[in-house]
Design goal:
- The protein is of the alpha+beta class.
- The protein is built from 14 helices and 13 strands.
- The chain has helices at 15-38, 47-61, 103-120, 124-137, 141-157, 172-203, 205-208, 211-218, 223-230, 234-240, 243-253, 265-270, 276-282, 340-343, and strands at residues 69-72, 80-84, 90-93, 98-100, 290-302, 311-323, 328-335, 356-364, 367-375, 392-401, 410-420, 426-428, 437-441.
- The strands form 2 sheets. It has an 8-stranded antiparallel beta barrel. Strands 1-2-3-4 form a 4-stranded antiparallel beta sheet, sandwiched between helices.
- Helix 9 packs antiparallel against helix 10 (234-240).
Length: 448
């Protein structure tokens, strides 16, 4: 607010009172300036009384106005007083740049300054905590901080004391031109950034390549790779949903013995709203590109020379099932001496070892039927007698499960029978120690 002009508005119905108030205020300012220039050693007259007299008439007419901050600057080296209506008085020495604040208020201003710093650096939790601490110390800390920051900016903008202080005139036109230049520079920068992105997008193979070419590439990949490719972008996901890709997978996977001889693929796909991808994921099928392994355990009591000591042995063995597209299945029962990394490469129809069986399999819904499991004996190079036929064959009934959806990676035992070859009597075998089969993929094995 200027020394000779009042910013406090007066009602339109009292122009005479407003004129008297203005003249009274000018007279007080002249007296104060004359007293200051006459004797520098004398202290500056208190501005609180003048400010109260200046604000008192306005409070009766404009009670809804916010608090007014009045800055009175001294032309001498005396202290400059800042009067804040409703806030504590802050006195700053312009010659030394020191603030005369109460210790409590000074601490509150310092905490408030730290809060502003944290807020500017997006550390909102710390800023909120410090703001609360500052206002608990003093309710008017924000006004005091504003006055301190204003005095700091004035001191930084002032020239050294040895030189005469000259008033700086800011050209509005110059500021306008600078802002316009900044805006043009920012606009050009944004345009160049967009242009670079457009040029980069033009060179991306996925965006620039025709959809027909990408579809031909996807049709030679496996379904796992296609699903990973679909996670790249929206366009990749749309391309991966093409029915031609998943029609090939369905036609390769769902053929006997995966389905019945009299069942058609068209009927299967219609169950899933003619969505080939959904049919391939949700319709049960046995995995042929790996092996199903069951890890089983049981406890066996051991012998001990001490009657007070009981010895127990934990026995571990593995069951393996490998399915082939022609309906053949390989079953192997191996003890813990044969680890999976050793057995899996050997699991072929020409394998001959104890516990190895070859049979047939079929799938009906989500139930797997394994029949005619015949043990293949060890081959003897110098055997003179023919091998005796097997008196018993085995059969399994398993439930196909998927964890998660689309994996079809689990087989649960439903039944395990021993069948007498002569009379065909089936005797159920106990399943106390048997566990579920879990699928393990083998990269070198074909899936169809």
């Amino acid at each position: 607010m200027s020394a000779g002009t009042s910013d406090i508005p007066a009602p339109e119905q009292e122009p005479a009172e407003l004129a008297r108030f203005r003249e009274q205020w000018k007279a007080e300012v002249r007296e104060r300036q004359a007293a200051t220039s006459g004797a520098q050693a004398q202290p500056v007259p208190s501005a609180n009384t003048a400010a109260e007299r200046a604000i008192s008439p306005a409070r009766s007419d404009a009670s809804a106005k916010p608090a007014t901050i009045t800055n009175t600057f001294s032309t001498s080296r005396g202290p400059a007083t800042h009067v804040v209506a409703g806030a504590p008085t802050v006195i700053t020495h312009t010659s030394h740049g020191q603030s005369h604040l109460s210790p409590n208020l000074a601490h509150a201003v310092e905490v408030y300054r730290k809060a502003v710093f944290h807020e500017q650096h997006s550390q909102l939790d710390d800023a909120l905590r410090l703001y609360r601490q500052a206002f608990r110390l003093d309710a008017n800390v924000d006004r005091a901080y504003f006055i301190e920051e204003q005095r700091t900016q004035e001191r930084s903008a002032a020239q050294p004391a040895t030189h005469k202080k000259a008033s700086s005139i800011v050209s509005v036109d110059g500021v306008t031109r600078d802002v316009q230049k900044l805006g043009v520079h920012q606009d050009n920068k944004n345009k160049s950034f967009v242009a670079r992105r457009m040029r980069r997008r033009d060179y991306l193979p996925l965006i620039s390549s025709p959809d027909e070419v990408l579809l031909q590439i996807l049709r030679i990949l496996d379904y796992t790779t296609i699903e990973r490719f679909a996670a790249v972008s929206r366009k990749a996901r749309v391309l991966s949903l093409d029915s031609a890709i998943w029609r090939d997978f369905v036609q390769l996977a769902y053929r006997p013995p995966q389905i019945a001889d009299d069942e058609s693929i068209t009927n299967i796909v219609e169950l899933y709203s003619s969505d080939y991808r959904r049919a391939y994921i949700e319709h049960p099928r046995l995995r042929l590109d790996g092996v199903y392994i069951a890890v089983c355990h049981y406890m066996r009591m051991g012998a001990s020379e001490n009657a007070w000591v009981n010895v127990s042995h934990l026995i571990t063995y593995h069951r393996y099932l490998r399915f082939f597209p022609n309906g053949q299945v390989l079953s192997l029962l191996a003890n813990e001496e044969w680890q999976p990394q050793t057995v899996i490469p050997m699991l072929k129809p020409n394998l001959r070892m104890k516990g190895f069986y070859i049979g047939d399999w079929s799938l009906s819904g989500s139930t797997v039927y394994i029949t005619n499991l015949v043990e293949k004996h060890l081959s003897h190079a110098h055997a003179t007698t023919e091998s005796q036929p097997n008196k018993y064959i085995f059969q399994m009934t398993l439930a196909l499960r998927s964890r998660p959806l689309g994996r079809w990676n689990k087989l649960d035992f439903i039944g395990y029978d021993s069948v007498n070859v002569e009379d065909g009597e089936a005797i159920p075998l106990p399943l106390k120690n048997e566990r579920s089969f879990w699928f393990s993929k083998v990269k070198s094995w074909a899936g169809y």
